[in-house]
Amino acid sequence: MIQRAVHGVIQKYLHKRRAIIIYGARRTGKTTLLNSIRANLTNFRYINCDLIDGQEAFDFRSLDDLLISFGAFKYILIDEAQRILDVGIKLKAIIDALPDTQIFVTGSSSLDLSNLTNEPLTGRKFEFTLPPLSSNELYDYEGITAVQRGLNIRLIYGNYPEVYLEKTVAEDIIKEIAGSYLFKDILIYQDIKRPDLMKKLLIALALQLGSEVSYTELANSVGMDKKTVERYISLMEQCFIIYRLGSYRRNLRSELKRAVKVYFWDNGIRNALINNFSPPDMRNDIGALWENYYITERRKMMLNRRASFDHYFWRTTSQQEIDLIEIENGALTAFEIKWNPAKRVSYPLSFTQAYPEATLISINPRNYLQGLIGKLHQLSLPSVNPKLEI
To answer: How far apart are CA 15 and CA 223, in angstroms?
Structure first.
C-alpha cells in the first residue's frame, strides 16, 4: 500500500477534543486511508455510511441513544459521512457528549459543499485534504528512479491511486472515474438542472488549460448565464475537480487585477474530458499539461505539510507573465515552468524591480523534483541567476 503523507501528519492532531475530517475527491483513497488508520487502533467502531445500517447508526434521538451507540468506544471512524442526514449536528452531539473519544470522518467534498459541517463544528474539527498521489508519496513507495521514469505516464493518465497502480488499464480506469464519479456529489447534493451543461463547461475549461478564463465568454460558449458559470465552477472547485488561481497584484498599476486561471487537480481527469491520451511528444498542449502538473504537485506538497500558503499567477496589461507566484509565511517565490529544459528562461524586469525580495526559480522536467521531495538533500535547489527582459 502507498503510505499517504497525511497519515503521518494527522498523528499530532489526535486527542485534542476535535474530529479529524478528511476531505477529497472520490477515488483518491479516503477509505483506504481510514482502514490504514484503524489497523493500529483498538476499541474502535467503524461505520460505512454508504450502507443503510451505517446511516441508521446516527438515528439517535436522545443522549442515552447516543451513549448506547458510541459511548463504549475510544475511537469512532466514519466513512462517507456526507450520507448522514444533518451530519454536522450529529457529529457535534457526539463530540460534545464524548470529548475524550477521537472521531475520524471521511467524506467527499459534499460535506463542505452543502455546508453541513461548517457552522455546527466550529472549533470542533481539524480538516485535512487527500488529493491524488503526490511526488513525495510516490518517492517513498518506489524510489527516485521510478518517479523520474514515470513522469510521462503521469502527465497523461494522472495520479489517482488506482490509475497509478494499474498501469496496464490506466486509460479505462481514468475514463471511468471521469465519467461515473466526477459529478456524483454535485448532482446528489445540489440543485443542478442541466448536468449536460456542467460537463460542457468543464470541457471548455479543459481546452483553456493554463489560459485566463472569462466567465462571460464561457457563459456565451456553453449557453448559460454568467452567474451560473461562476456557481458551477465554485461547486467543481469544492469537489476537488478544479481549482482557481487569481492574479497577483501589489506594486504595479499595470498588473492585472481580477484575472483568473483554472487548473485541474489531476491531469488524467483533464485528458479524459477531452479524450486525448496521446503521449507528450505528440501533443500541442504539452506546455499547458506540464504547467498544470507542476503547479498541482506544488499544491499537494503544501497541503500535505499543512503549510500556510497562497498561489497566484502574475501578468501585466502588456502580457508580461510569470507562471506561479507562491507566498508562504510572507516569503515570495516566482516560478517559471518550462517543458523544454533548453528553452531560454527570463523574468520581466518590471517584476524583479517591483519585487526584489522574490526568489526566482526555473522549473523543467529535469529539476522539478528538487522542490517537491524534501528527503532528497542532494537535489536541493541551486541558486538561480535568470536573464531579465524589459
So the answer is: 50
What are φ and ψ of residue 7, in 5° steps?
Answer: -60, -45
Phi, psi of 28 (to 5 degrees): -90, -5
Q: Give me the domains of the chain, ranges plus CATH numbers.
A: 5-129 (3.40.50.300), 135-389 (no CATH)
Mean pLDDT across the stretch 330-338?
96
Q: Confidence class of residue 279 from pLDDT cuts 50, 70 and 90?
A: very high
Q: Which DSSP helix (H) or strand (E) runs through 267? A: helix 267-274
If DSSP codes are grouped into helix, strand and coil, which group holds residue 179? helix
Grid cell listed for 36:
490504514
| Total-model pTM | 0.93
Q: What residues form DSSP beta bridges with 38?
A: none
DSSP 117-139: STTTTTTSEEEEE--SPPHHHHH
- Alpha carbon distance 326, 311 (integer Å): 5
**DSSP secondary structure letter of residue 34:** H
Identify the residue whose cell numbers are 442515552. 64
Evaluate whether 23 touches 145 at the Cβ level (below 8 Å): no
Q: Convert the pLDDT of each residue in 81-110 to its tens digit.
A: 988 988 999 999 999 999 999 999 998 877
Nearest to 158 by CA among 142, 144, 148, 173: 173
Grid coordinates belonging to 270: 483533464
Q: Whose grid coordinates read 485535512?
A: 128
Place of cell 442526514: 85
The answer to whether residues 138 and 147 touch, using CB atoms and an 8 Å cutoff, is: yes
d(Cα 250, Cα 42) in Å, to the nearest integer?
53
Q: What single-letter amino acid sits at 34? A: L
d(CA 67, CA 94): 9
DSSP character at residue 81: G
The amino acid at 343 = K
Q: Compute the distance between CA of residue 135 and CA of residue 237 in angstroms, rounded to an integer.
A: 22
Distance of CA 334 to the CA centre of its chain: 21
